[in-house]
């Protein structure tokens, strides 16, 4: 399965655009390699993050980076095939990428996160912003909610936790060849997951699914991606503005 992204930019493209435009933005998809029930692939979160990032790059003048394909999936460790890195490692990878981009004149980074368990990405962005660096995490919960409503997704974000209506819909639209039969009858509702961090996913689902994949459709997936692409506009405007407020009251 090829989940790589090959940016069209050459070295000269990046150098020229960075010199000619005040603020350059790079987009980094971050996913995971973890179980997604018996019908979605281990690379689902990476595929979703890449689908969002590709559409952003088609609509906005950004530099598209290849994805980080393994994230923090420790809550899925009960299922074979799941591979994780530590939060410390993921934090360092994203920080190092941002620093390397700045050396090329690309001073803003948007992390497109496809896996809810990559909690540390929020810390990376907060710490970077506090230092006066330009970084954002996308999509926010509000962006997902807007996309859910626009696409007619019936399942709430609470219920649609893993391999549910949203992820199934996006893959039915972008990679239907990777969706196996069985999602039509795989619904699992488990809204009270207060001990998830202590017990992991296996305490709440036997199949690895939490949500209603039976409601997924390619048309919903198409509308979800269209909505997220529109929502990205506010992030792009913020990161490319001449003067951006940062934590602590400094501006840069």
From TrEMBL:
Q: Does the keyword Zinc apply?
A: yes
User: Which keywords accompany this UniProt record?
Assistant: Hydrolase, Metal-binding, Zinc
**Which InterPro entries does this one have?**
Creatininase-like_sf, Creatininase/forma_Hydrolase
Instruction: Give the required cofactors.
Output: Zn(2+)
Q: Pfam families, per this entry? A: Creatininase
Keyword Metal-binding belongs to the record: yes
Q: Which GO terms describe its biological process?
A: riboflavin biosynthetic process
Coiled coil spans? none
Q: One GO molecular function term?
A: metal ion binding
Regarding protein family, the annotation reads:
Belongs to the creatininase superfamily.
Q: State what protein this is by name.
A: Creatininase family protein
């Amino acid at each position: 399965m090829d989940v790589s992204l090959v940016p069209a930019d050459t070295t000269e493209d990046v150098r020229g655009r960075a010199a000619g435009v005040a603020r350059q933005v790079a987009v980094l998809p971050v996913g995971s390699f973890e179980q997604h029930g018996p019908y979605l692939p281990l690379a689902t979160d990476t595929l979703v993050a890449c689908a969002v990032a590709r559409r952003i790059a088609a609509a906005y003048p950004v530099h598209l980076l290849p994805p980080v394909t393994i994230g923090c999936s420790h809550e899925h460790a009960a299922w074979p095939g799941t591979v994780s890195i530590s939060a410390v490692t993921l934090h360092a990878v994203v920080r190092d990428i941002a620093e390397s981009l700045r050396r090329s004149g690309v001073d803003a980074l948007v992390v497109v996160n496809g896996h809810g368990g990559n909690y540390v990405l929020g810390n990376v962005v907060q710490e970077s912003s506090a230092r006066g660096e330009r970084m954002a995490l996308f999509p926010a919960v509000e962006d997902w909610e807007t996309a859910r409503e626009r696409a007619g997704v019936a399942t709430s974000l609470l219920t649609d936790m893993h391999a549910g209506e949203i992820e199934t819909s996006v893959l039915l639209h972008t990679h239907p060849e990777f969706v196996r039969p069985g999602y039509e009858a795989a619904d699992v509702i488990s809204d009270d997951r207060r001990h998830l961090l202590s017990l992991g996913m296996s305490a709440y689902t036997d199949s690895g699914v939490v949500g209603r994949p039976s409601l997924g459709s390619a048309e919903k997936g198409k509308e979800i991606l269209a909505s997220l692409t529109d929502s990205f506009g506010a992030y792009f405007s913020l990161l490319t503005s001449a003067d951006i407020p940062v934590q602590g009251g400094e501006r840069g």
